[in-house]
Amino acid sequence: MDGDQGAAEDEPPSLLWGLDPVFSAYARLYVKDILQMRESRQVPGIYFYKSHPLFQVDVLGTVVYRRERDDFYCYGVDDSTGVINCLCWKDEKWRDHGDLAKDAARGPAGGGFNVEEQLRKLREAQRSSSVLEIGDLLQVRGSLKTSREQREIMTSSFYKVNDPVMSVQISRMLEMPQLYRDCYDKPFLIPSSELSASSTDNDRPSSFQSVLSQSVHILKEFLKEKEVTRFRPYDVEYLLHPLIQQPGSNTSTEQEPGSVRSMIPAQIRNLLKETLKILQVEGEIFRKVLSQDEVYNVTEHDKDLLAAICDILREDCKREKYAEKGCHVLHILSSVRQRYSRNLSREALDVALKFLECNSDIISTTDAHYTVL
Amino acid sequence: MLPAAAVFHFPWEISSDLVKDGASIRTFGRLTNYLPEESKAVLTSHHASVQYQVSIQTTFVEPFDPIIGAQYIVLGEIEKSEGEGEAIVHARVFNCVDGVDVALLQKAVNEQRKFFRERNDEAGAR
Fold it and tell me: Is the pTM of this model over 0.80?
């Protein structure tokens, strides 16, 4: 059967199970498949339908077997492909029937809306939908368990379904094959980005991306921590040394010491260039003037820029045109470019606006309009 | 002990060789006759201009409220006595589902069968 074929394939590593949407859903499987799924070798209590790891199921079927215990009911549920046991816990508050009878004896209070009375009716309705007889239709959700070689469902929610003309059953019968074709029978493919991320550790050429993301992170942290307002590339170059030197030290034993020394700075300069490019694209930094002297302003810490934006908003929001909605981002951008720096990027402006809004200096009226408080 | 799963069968399949003696099945039909003293009921249905009748032994589901002319769904084990062609369903569940869309129910059963047939074919091909 399907389960056996699956066993030949290797289970995906448990770390990646959460990436499969089926894993965190209540799988609507045929009882036949639930009974035949194989249990995971890595984690007991997890089952595999084809390549999908799962532990929670959703079943609808006729009660064909019923056994009452002190604190739970055991219902055998038949969905016409198989029969499975469902353990349904009794609710504490329904245990003492004496209370209920007493309430009922009091009867409805004359006229008006009686909250207690309604609550009692609600409880009664809840109770009656959780006690089933053979032949009733039962809907259960719960986690799977194998005890004494028998697979059963520990229900987390269950109720009797009122289905006088079988519409619920029919619609489910029509839905299930489609669900299988669209979802459960499609193999779970681990996103390739995850696979490459886990393989970069031993794979040198593709590791540049991970080094780059590290260096972006380091630089961001540094700018934030030291509240840097502006810097030149050589000011921060030393921060990236640890990233490049580690792999470099391994190779230095094999290569000429001289060539290694000349190689490392080139690598670092290249890395720094790429890092700064990313920060500029993100709007974290910008260059106020394009000149030989490579100076970068840190958007969030550029007091003059922030003041300029506030001034523009304060002045323009007084004008009738902008009074109601505030100024559009593009209007602010062109004003700031005229007044402060021709070179300011849209991304940097967005960062600055977000920063000002976080400080409650300005407020957004729509997703593209800002006004002063 | 749990009983075997009751597989859907159309009333016109009950007397065919498709359904073996002792099999657990579920089927439907209009209640046209009920004899309380013998605990016997008859479900009638039409398919391709032919009338089909299924005999039901109702001992396990009594007492119930018989509504003559209403659609019922029955779930139980089949008994086929040798010689005579007549099959009897020993009902475990006997529910009135009057108002059911029989055509849609047939479609749903056929969809489910088609799905399992395709899956078995695929498994066989592999």
Answer: no
